[in-house]
Amino acid sequence: MMPLCVSPSVHAHEKFFCFRCVFVVTVCLHLFFHTVFASTAAADSNAGLTVTQAITDECRWGFRGAGYHMHLAVEFPLNYDEVCVFLELPRAFFFDAAEVEQLYSITALGEDVTREYTPLGINSTFFFDIEAPAFLVGYKVNSVRVTFRRLSSREGATTKRNPTAKGLLLLPIHARYEEVDTATPFSLQAFFGRESFVRRCIPALSVQDWKTAARCHTLPAPMGQESRSPSDNTTVGSSTPSNCLDIPVALLSSAPLVYIALVALQCVGVVIVVLSLLRV
What we know:
elongated, disordered N terminus, 4 helices, alpha+beta, two-stranded antiparallel sheet, Immunoglobulin-like
């Protein structure tokens, strides 16, 4: 049999094709191993991050105080640099924005660290009418965002003392007047004892670090939390969850007594003024 003649250009083409195949396989293997190693490293780093944040990812919050004027206490991890507190506030409660910006406080490890952060910022979807009763408010829920950031010159000042500790944000908050109680009959005990009330709650609250996108697992403080004032260390047992408040409700049956008392006070005032003029 006569040998088959093959052109040199054909051999060159086959060599080039083999080279391309080897190159493609090499690139695919490189990408495969690079992806596997990167995924493993990311998983390890995420696991480490989870372990690191597990100590500080539980933040308690709730009301401190009673009646119509109290504080909303919110914990946040001290390793958060840009703290954002977000809540859907029912119309039964309201913030006086000017009061919040002036009277809020931030404490950590028993010290006032308010100066280590920028001034507090508060924004809401709807304007807070501080005079309107609950039944005249035009919305059911108002989205509120409270933000503050650690000053760069103070960065790490509190976390170096205890990196797993938490700070405490105290915000003055108020309850609105509810509709009057039309069912309870009048009695001095009911009038002075404030036995008629409605329970209103803030359903949820979130705490986030805008810088790292880390989130804190928030939960209402357990029952029996101190409830009189931020500086009071006594514990008052209560069956009311810390994210709820029993708001006193006025008695409709007491309206005549209230009006009579007001008229009597006015009459007494007039008598005092007249007598003082006669003596002159």
